[in-house]
Amino acid sequence: MKRILVINGSASEHSSNGLLIEQLISLGSSFFEFEKFESLKSLPHFDPKPVEIPDAVVLFWKKVEEADKVLFCTPEYIFSIPSGLKNALEWSVSTTIFSGKSIGIITASASGVLGHEELQRIMKTLGAHFSPENTLLISGIKGKAGVDPELDEKLSLFLSSWEN
Fold it and tell me: 164 falls in which pLDDT band (50, 70, 90)?
C-alpha cells in the first residue's frame, strides 16, 4: 500500500477540510495508508538563516520524505493559502524534499480559486510532481463534506488517479 501524508492547511480545529480529509480516508483506506500531519502550528516562524533547524521542522521534513505521496487539503484564506501552510513550505524551500515528490492538491473553500492556483505555483517551484488529475477545487465546501454524494464521486476519482 502506498503511504499518503495528508496535510490539512486549515488553522481551525473543526474545519470543513478536516471533515473532507476524514471522508477521503474513509473512501481510500482500502487502497492507501494515510497519515495525517496535524502539527503545522508547531512549526516556528520561518527563519531563512536559523542557527539550528528546529525539531518540529526536521519532523515535518522527515514525514514528507517517508511518504510515497503528499496530499494537501486546504482552504483559501484572503485569496491565498493559510499562513501555517505557507510557513511549512517556506521551511522547505532550501531542501529537496518535494523535488519529484508525487503530490495532490485539494482546495476546499468558499471560492478557493486563487488559493488553489497559488499552491500549485508554489509546489511547481518546489519541484513537486502533480497533474490536473491530482488537483481538485471544491468551491462552496460548507455543508458538502460528508453529506454530498457528488463529492464522494469526485473524491473517488481523485484517489483513483493515484492508484498507479
Answer: low
